[in-house]
Amino acid sequence: MAISIILLFLPLIFFSSFSSSTIDRLSGASSLSVEHADDVLTSPDGVFSAGFFPVGDNAYCFAIWFSEPYSEGNRTIVWMANRDDPVNGRKSELSLRKSGNVIITDAGRLTVWSTDTVSASSVFLYLHENGNLILQNSEGGVLWQSFDSPTDTLLPQQLLTKDMQLVSSRSQGNYSSGFYKLYFDNDNVLRLLYGGPEITVYWPDPELMSWEASRSTFNSSRIAFLDSLGYFSSSDNFTFMSADYGERVQRILKLDFDGNIRLYSRKYRMDKWTVSWQAMSQPCRIHGTCGPNSICSYVPHFGRKCSCLPGFKIRDRTDWSLGCVQEFNLTCTRNETGFLKMSNVEFFGYDYGFFPNYTFGMCENLCLQICDCKGFQFKFIKHAHPSNIPYCYPKTQLLNGHHSPNFQGDIYLKVQNTLPIQEIGLDCSSTVVKQLNRTYTKHQENASLKFVVRFAMVVGSVELGVIFIVWCFFIRTHRNSSAEMIIDPKLEGKYDKGRMEILFEVALKCVAEDRDARPTMSQVVEMLLHQENDTELV
Ligand SMILES: *[C@@H]1O[C@H](CO)[C@@H](O)[C@H](O)[C@H]1NC(C)=O
Ligand SMILES: *[C@@H]1O[C@H](CO)[C@@H](O)[C@H](O)[C@H]1NC(C)=O
Ligand SMILES: *[C@@H]1O[C@H](CO)[C@@H](O)[C@H](O)[C@H]1NC(C)=O
Ligand SMILES: *[C@@H]1O[C@H](CO)[C@@H](O)[C@H](O)[C@H]1NC(C)=O
Ligand SMILES: *[C@@H]1O[C@H](CO)[C@@H](O)[C@H](O)[C@H]1NC(C)=O
Ligand SMILES: *[C@@H]1O[C@H](CO)[C@@H](O)[C@H](O)[C@H]1NC(C)=O
Ligand SMILES: *[C@@H]1O[C@H](CO)[C@@H](O)[C@H](O)[C@H]1NC(C)=O
Ligand SMILES: *[C@@H]1O[C@H](CO)[C@@H](O)[C@H](O)[C@H]1NC(C)=O
User: Which residues form the signal peptide (predicted)?
Assistant: First the structure.
């Protein structure tokens, strides 16, 4: 009897748990529970949905996403209420109160988020066709809307105004607030900044004046806006047009976790987003990528790569944003300090000062006098006035480093010359940070390509290991006649220049932008032996 009753109700249980009834508005005193997969608000055309989304183990955020594709792993999130305060998977809910307030409670207790609204008349919450979640009263007044508090994404028709900002997420799979912001600055210019230990702006190019970057500081309305055809305009005169301008496609403007801002578009219901515009074409110019004491270089087809500076080692192999730490402590004794030149390398910000028309010697002396000086940037600036004179920038920290053949300037690192040279390693563990040219959805991984890449990386590290051993051997057998790594100011040019150049070349090829440009094992041995023979003959 009992069994037959169960059998009778089984289809009912089955269907009730799998059919999805769409909710188009919340009114009265009502709520959406984290425990019910069906508790999702849907826009009238079905394009957008709002509900609880899993962001980690038993951690949920109330979010708005594109309803298609349905699978959780592929969902395109466009807004989040409590990105930095995820709630428990049991008893958490979003509730509309009779008072007119909307709150999110964690496990039935703590309020982690609220709209802070009150209303004498009745209110209702609904999702507009443009993706805007709106709290409205019965007179039609808007009490609150999600468009006023964007997270990392701007939808067409959504305004970015003076008190708003887009904040990137922490990483690919972590939706918490990250380090990058798009906002209107005090001078009315729309900018991208990196909020690391020190706040630095990297877009528009900080070396240009606003007017040189075609930005206007005069219009104080501070409004930016993307239209549905793919045209973006900002009150500081910055505009762009998407590559597929005019096509009726879905679009999102997103500040990605890597600090680049990209416009994505896709055909309706197709799940692949393609990049139709991006702010930074040179990804290493985005600040904060590789953390302190490391250099970012761009490897075509791979993406950005981080390398530790000579004398430094990586802090955490899984997180390059933490950068590298010094393998030994620098003393402040003048006669024990020298400089190592790295060409076409720039470190942005953290200047002790700005010293125009300083000769190399003056700049070097300045850095030696300052204990905290980690090195100095020495370059000629085209646009500066007066032009064609050298500019000296002693650095208190080595951050936002990047290597580019296009960069006309060198960095001189302060190094200790009394320590055995073997201690100065060059950590070339090249981790590809991320792809620039990716579509938003995950690529199907190509197994054979993956194998080739892994194989190449293994061969590469073995190669580098051998280079290092040979290098150490070479240096050991020619200790301090070959102070190649370190230019001691006291030597005053009384060193073997040719030999130094060769070793520099070998060292710097390790951080070469292009993998193919790096020497093979046999080439290195040849270079070193050749050099040795030459000097023996002299
Ligand atoms: C996301 O990153 C933040 C900051 O590092 C961390 O506190 C949080 O636990 C991470 N969340 C997940 C789900 O990994
Ligand atoms: C994402 O969508 C693609 C294509 O529909 C599918 O093959 C893939 O399994 C999905 N990924 C996840 C994580 O659901
Ligand atoms: C900004 O654009 C407007 C209209 O196109 C133009 O009149 C104005 O001169 C521009 N301002 C600057 C500073 O370029
Ligand atoms: C300022 O920018 C707004 C928005 O782009 C525009 O409508 C307005 O005409 C601009 N004002 C001036 C004086 O250019
Ligand atoms: C450098 O100095 C700090 C503090 O003085 C010390 O904690 C650290 O161990 C030193 N590092 C090395 C490599 O000697
Ligand atoms: C540097 O100078 C100090 C005293 O001025 C001296 O004690 C030390 O030995 C010198 N070091 C070297 C490497 O010459
Ligand atoms: C730069 O300094 C030199 C002397 O060191 C001086 O002759 C020259 O006029 C200076 N140039 C500028 C542009 O200040
Ligand atoms: C990015 O991808 C597009 C199309 O897939 C390709 O034409 C373009 O060359 C790529 N750009 C880079 C920098 O790899």
Answer: 1-21
